[in-house]
Amino acid sequence: MGLAMARLLLQAGHRLTVYNRTRSRADQLKDLKPVVAETPAAAARGADVLITMLADDDSLEAVMLGPEGAAAVLPAGAIHISMSTISPALAARLAERHRAAGQVYVAAPVFGRPEAAAAKQLWIVAAGPADALTRCRPVLDALGQGVIVVGDDPPHANVIKLAGNFLLAAAIEAMGEAFALGRKYGIAPADLLDIVNGRLIRSPIYENYGKLIAEERYEPAGFKLKYGLKDIRLALGAAEQVAAPMPLASLIRDRYLAGIARGWGDVDWAALARIAAVDAGL
Amino acid sequence: MGLAMARLLLQAGHRLTVYNRTRSRADQLKDLKPVVAETPAAAARGADVLITMLADDDSLEAVMLGPEGAAAVLPAGAIHISMSTISPALAARLAERHRAAGQVYVAAPVFGRPEAAAAKQLWIVAAGPADALTRCRPVLDALGQGVIVVGDDPPHANVIKLAGNFLLAAAIEAMGEAFALGRKYGIAPADLLDIVNGRLIRSPIYENYGKLIAEERYEPAGFKLKYGLKDIRLALGAAEQVAAPMPLASLIRDRYLAGIARGWGDVDWAALARIAAVDAGL
Amino acid sequence: MGLAMARLLLQAGHRLTVYNRTRSRADQLKDLKPVVAETPAAAARGADVLITMLADDDSLEAVMLGPEGAAAVLPAGAIHISMSTISPALAARLAERHRAAGQVYVAAPVFGRPEAAAAKQLWIVAAGPADALTRCRPVLDALGQGVIVVGDDPPHANVIKLAGNFLLAAAIEAMGEAFALGRKYGIAPADLLDIVNGRLIRSPIYENYGKLIAEERYEPAGFKLKYGLKDIRLALGAAEQVAAPMPLASLIRDRYLAGIARGWGDVDWAALARIAAVDAGL
Amino acid sequence: MGLAMARLLLQAGHRLTVYNRTRSRADQLKDLKPVVAETPAAAARGADVLITMLADDDSLEAVMLGPEGAAAVLPAGAIHISMSTISPALAARLAERHRAAGQVYVAAPVFGRPEAAAAKQLWIVAAGPADALTRCRPVLDALGQGVIVVGDDPPHANVIKLAGNFLLAAAIEAMGEAFALGRKYGIAPADLLDIVNGRLIRSPIYENYGKLIAEERYEPAGFKLKYGLKDIRLALGAAEQVAAPMPLASLIRDRYLAGIARGWGDVDWAALARIAAVDAGL
Predict the structure, then answer these.
(1) B244: nearest CB among C233, C253, C261
(2) Which among A161, A184, A211, A230 is annotated as catalytic?
(3) Which residue in chain B is spatially nearest to A111 when comparing CA positions?
(4) Is B279 on the interface with D (CB under 8 A)?
(5) C166 contact D CB<8A
(6) What is the pLDDT of residue A26?
(7) C58 inside 8 A of chain B by CB
(8) Which residues of chain D are within 8 Å of residue C251 when distances are taken between CB atoms?
(9) Which of A61, B78, B237, C64 is the most buried (most CB within 10 A)?
(10) Is the confidence at residue D33, as pLDDT, over 90?
(11) Does any CB of chain A come closer than 8 Å to the CB of residue D247?
(12) Is B55 on the interface with C (CB under 8 A)?
């Protein structure tokens, strides 16, 4: 993901210093000649804008606040654009930390898979101080097909990202159950999809995931089931913070665990639908 | 619903005898001069095609097989187009019964609310013997925007209808939980909907129901919550017949019951989403 | 079940006419010389007390109200003691029917397996008119270790029976999940049971079912999983009648279906716990 | 809880240094003249055995590993008896940490409420190196009615504690649903309890909680609902670590959240049953 985004920024003419835990990743960008940093701190030193795109809360914390972390050396006035799917709680904590250091935190999680990133098709949901958003807008514009500003409170962007992924997972679970029901009556999933999405729901998301499920095509993974679990865990955690029960999210979480217990952690998260099939004896 | 359909048939030039338990309903058609029957049997006697559109399994059974029922007098060779949302089990039983009497059963449940019926915007999912479908096609064409033929086994059409309604209810439940989460963080449902459906899911169904939920506009009911319960009960019953667990359908059923216990049986079924809000203390 | 009960009645000195769909069953009682009837009606004709113990609502309806059914010939003033696990709705309907015919309906479902019946260890939960309960008390006393009278409204007894079975199933589900968790950490179910039931819960029910689960001893079945499904379906149906959501009952129902889809309909209903194990990859 | 335990140790003749964040708590022990430490470190310095009983993982981590924490100064060879209800993950981490420092970690969580602790009625589930368990046995024996040794792997004791609390919460949820069903049919919870627990389940746990629920007596809290949530969260977290789905635990978690959203965080955790009543319109 980060690789695709770095390429877009370089192609848009931005000067870029890149850092990745696995240094060889940067080699794939060598035609575009970025500066390659050895540590997060080295990447952040002297930067106007710092962009992070990491797997989870722990990774982001390590990169920002750990040894050789970026937060300590980021210049006052610099903007940290945090694009990972993380908890709103961590977003709030980092925002506070940056504010105390005279830096600025902008939450900017994205919707879209790596191939969407490469094609500049990401949607970016951004929240942070208005002037900071204006200042870093050219950077965000270089990274996706659109930027949706949702106010000045960074965690809002993260909640919206988590709510969005939850809705996708819910659609997958619903199709999984509906297709399993249909199959037991001898109705082909593709036919059912053609009717219910083709005439009623008419969503490209249902179309794409519906096809994966209908064809049981869970490999290679576009987005791994174990990351689906991570995101639903974040959604449930965010909901617990504000005492909002989400029983459908709980159901999805339990199904992901049943998938992981069966060894499906690395197949596509659409394999959530496979649990419904297995439970129906299919 | 039946009223809108009768109007369309008369306007298309079909000769029609109508029957409704509440006789005065037929008065609304008097400008189109249908024959009005006093009993189901009177409506079926001598008919080429018999169309039924009733509230549930029990009503359809009463009209077809009860005293003064239609089945006993329907001519051999006549087609019964059964358009109610009923159980596949009843469809199978009626199909068998008609076959034994030399009559033909066509299942043709519809997607769309009464106003869609009035505007000839229904989608009709039809299953039955191919020649019967050909013969009654002009009738079906007069009733909706499209006919989707799904084979010769009538219950298939009913399963597809139930699966479709389940998917809609699942989308409502998912939005209900997502919106409640967002609201607890101070995010307006309309904003969340604008992002997650406007950019990602892009479904008119999510748009319509999402707006109802965002605006908490559950009255007047387009489709009553108690009928939502009826349909999910039918889906769960159909799934039980073939040993297909549908935990999301179970969740939705329990939520409908919680709504009915709160006196919401007659508000719009989108009020399913209100349970998520109430449970979050909203 | 009926066999064990008939034996107890004969041993207690009651005069008994028996009827079973499978006539040869009565042969097992031949040392006690009951009268054997060819039809339900033949068994009911002239009886003071009619006892029914059948598999489900449909069987009871057939025996009472079908061709050669018992209701039509039961003398005025006679008592029908209905001991099957049935829906409160059917109990109410039959009570009304008998009342209209000058007969009396007593609901008297039982707790206990066939071997408990044979050992006169059943608990009988009885509801009906007080004088009828007094009159038939010697019969009930001959059939179990105790009679618990719960008022004069027959459906109450059925609701209590269904609530009781639900609590047993809930305990099995809870142990299933707890044991699966323990096993994944290397804790033997027997050890966990010894602590949590031996010291905390201290219930013979947990002890018995806990052992079956710990030893994965699901055959031969004491009570078949498919009957567990039937009873939870009745509980959910009874709850739906009064708009009481029971999400734990729904969860159990879905798990039974997952078991039946795997071919476990005829193993012991404690195999509910096996689903938790399977879902955990055990 | 800690207070009651300190009193038992002093009464048993052990020499004791106590530490509590709220210093005044120790005043309640002044008749027994314990040494009162100002910091965790001060309490641990020179100790043979260190006992911790804290609210959650974070508190234990702070006391052991934070500034003025106990771990750094605990002598080599000393035993840390960790009695809090914490995650098995933290138990494993602390055990490793102590081992590296030549100290010994014993997990010894307890079953029982504060009043049980005061009456020396706790059950202690202990896991750790066998020789350490032997050495600290007199301390454990002074604290409860029995010590159950479950091997040498400390997290095992924590998993058993979490599984036990889950089983209690499951019993409460089950009774909540069963009682709500009964109430809607006009059956008093006390009568239902008398039958289902009095004759079938026969558990003192069901008796105690069943009475609280039947009488809707949720205040004062014996164990607060928010701690029930904490424990079920720990159970779900422990289960996620090993990919064991626990849908009943998820259901209970969602219900606790619904309770907390209604402002019931500080009432007794048996109020879990109140959600079932509210959802049934009671």
Answers:
(1) C261
(2) A161
(3) B200
(4) yes
(5) yes
(6) 83
(7) no
(8) 247-248, 251
(9) C64
(10) no
(11) yes
(12) no
Instruction: Work out the minimum CA distance from B56 to partner chain D, whole angstroms.
Output: 25
Residues of A within 8 A of B184 (CB-CB) are 239, 242-244
C202 chain-D contacts, CB cut-off 8 A = 202-205
Per-residue pLDDT, D272 = 97
What number is the average pLDDT over the span D153-171?
98
Cα gap B262→D185, rounded to integer Å: 17
Would you say residue C120 has pLDDT above 90?
Answer: yes
For position B21, what pLDDT does the model report?
Answer: 87
The top-level CATH class assigned to A2-151 is: alpha beta
CATH dotted code for C159-279: 1.10.1040.10
Measured between CA atoms, the residue of chain D closest to residue A229 is: D240
CA distances from B258 to A233, B44, B217 (A): 26, 41, 19
Within 10 A of B105 (CB to CB), how many other CB atoms are there? Answer: 25
Q: What distance in Å separates residue D198's CA from the closest CA in chain B?
A: 29
**pLDDT reported for residue D242:** 98
Cα(B196)–Cα(A160) distance, integer angstroms: 8
Which contiguous run of DSSP H or E holds residue B63?
helix B57-65
d(CA C27, CA C5): 15
Q: What pTM value is reported for the model? A: 0.96
Return the closest-CA partner of residue C214 out of C251, C254, C257, C172.
Answer: C172
Parallel/antiparallel/unpaired status of strands B123-126 and B110-111? antiparallel
Hey, what CATH class is D2-152 in? alpha beta
Which of C110, C122, C173, C187 to mutate: most D Cβ within 10 Å?
Answer: C187
Comparing alpha-carbon positions, the chain D residue that sits nearest to A258 is D245
* CA pseudo-torsion sign D264, D266, D270, D272: positive
Quote ipTM for the complex: 0.96
Distance between CA atoms of B36 and B17, rounded to whole angstroms?
Answer: 6
CB < 8 Å to A240, chain D: 233, 257
Query: What are the start-end ranges of the H helices in D185-246?
Result: 189-195, 204-214, 225-241
**A163-192: pLDDT as tens digits:** 999 999 999 999 999 999 999 999 999 999
Nearest to D108 by CA among D121, D126, D122, D92: D126
In 3D space, the residue among B118, B28, B124, B39 whose CA is nearest the CA of residue B73 turns out to be B39
Per the residue annotation, which of C161, C211, C224, C230 is the catalytic one?
C161
Distance CA A209, CA A195 (A): 15
pLDDT number for residue B24: 83
Domains C2-152 and C159-279 belong to one CATH topology: no
Identify residue C192 by its one-letter amino acid code: L
Q: Say yes or no to pLDDT of C127 above 90.
A: yes
Instruction: Tell me if residue B175 falls in helix, strand or coil.
Output: helix
Q: In the predicted model, is pLDDT for residue D113 greater than 90?
A: no
C111: pLDDT strictly greater than 90:
yes
C-alpha distance from A162 to closest chain C C-alpha (Å):
26
Q: Does A261 touch chain C (CB under 8 A)?
A: yes
The answer, yes or no, to whether residue D41 has pLDDT greater than 90, is yes
Chain B CB contacts of C260 under 8 Å are: 243
CB proximity list for C256: less than 8 A, separation 6 or greater: C225, C226, C228, C229, C232, C269, C272
- Give chain C positions within 8 Å (CB) of B244: 257, 261
Position C24 scores a pLDDT of 83
Q: pLDDT tens digit string along C207-250?
A: 999 999 999 999 999 999 999 999 999 999 999 999 999 999 99
Q: Which CATH number fits domain B2-148: 1.10.490.10, 3.40.50.300, 3.30.450.190, 3.40.50.720?
A: 3.40.50.720
Q: Do C254 and B261 touch (CB under 8 A)?
A: no
Domain boundaries, chain C: 2-152, 159-279
Matching residue, tokens 């309770």 = D259
